[in-house]
Amino acid sequence: MHRIYGRLRVWVVVLAVVLLLGAGSLVLAADAGADRAGAVEVAEPKTLLDTINSGGLVGYIIIFLSVVAIALTIEHLMTIRRSIIMPPDVLAEVEECFEKEKYDEAIAACEGQPTFFTNVLAAGLARVNAGYKQMEEAMAEAGEEAATGLQQKTSYLALIANIAPMLGLLGTVQGMISAFNKIAVSTAPKPAELADSIQLALVTTFLGLFVAIPVMCVHHFFKNKVQKIILEVGAISGELMARFRPVE
Fold first, then answer.
1. In terms of Cα–Cα distance, which of 18, 16, 83, 63 is closest to 203?
2. What is the DSSP string of 27-57?
3. What's the confidence (pLDDT) of residue 135?
4. Confidence at residue 73, expressed as pLDDT on a 0 to 100 scale
5. Measured between alpha carbons, how far is 232 from 88 in angstroms, rounded to an integer?
6. Do the beta carbons of residue 159 and residue 68 sit within 8 Å?
7. Listed residue (170, 190, 207, 157) closest to 22, CA to CA
8. How many CA atoms lie within 13 Å of 127's alpha carbon, on the beta-carbon side?
9. Each residue's pLDDT tens digit, 153-205
10. How many domains would you assign to the chain?
């Protein structure tokens, strides 16, 4: 348990560092642009908010996706845990019922607190009179259904990690089209006239990568964690049900 919390703290620190570095990069980029503009003419320096606003609608969509990713991460940290999916008190109660061969009470304990582990175990115990093969098939079916639900739950992070850079690329294309349109209608456009379009292209690209990289790391963390929990549930439930296996 301490090891799991330690890993969570590491990932939270990594995510925080990435966010701080990204925010710092935006500030430096805005300050650098203000310094270059100030060398030619006096202009108000751009703030971090101004730089983000220059990303336009695409930038706002990427920021919204980052908020969704943070919410999903917090939800996964609270729900994708061994103590939630396989509660120690329920496991101890079920093991005690198995030792006393009180299988009806074990089923009641599982149904009283439905989780991944208890659903798999209850599916097998419900077929106790049908034979071990039927019990094994029922557990496999319930386990596959629960595992698919967990994997689909974490897949939304992967979706955000894939969509964010594509939106950044969309913003890049939008900015370049805008810049070339300005060049087409003007024989000698000034750099300041193209600055907004170029900044749109760069800011959206930066935001897309800034969101995608940490979200991808978080997704792989939860993906591996889910896989580990699935294997652990299968091993423990299989060990409990081994007593019903016929002797060859």
1. 63
2. HHHHHHHHHHHHHHS--PPPPHHHHHHTTHH
3. 86
4. 94
5. 13
6. no
7. 207
8. 20
9. 999 999 999 999 999 999 889 888 888 888 878 777 777 777 788 888 888 99
10. 1
Q: Residue 27 corresponds to which tokens in the numbers above?
A: 């500030």
Whether 4 has a pLDDT exceeding 50, the answer reads no
Q: Does residue 192 fall inside a structural domain?
A: yes
Q: Is residue 33 in a domain? A: no
Domain that holds residue 66: 55-244
Instruction: For residue 247, name the pLDDT band (cuts at 50, 70, 90).
Output: low
pTM: 0.73
- Alpha helices (H) in the chain, listed in sequence order: 2-40, 48-53, 56-79, 82-85, 88-99, 103-112, 116-125, 132-185, 191-241
In a domain, 23, yes or no: no
Residue 195 lies in a domain: yes
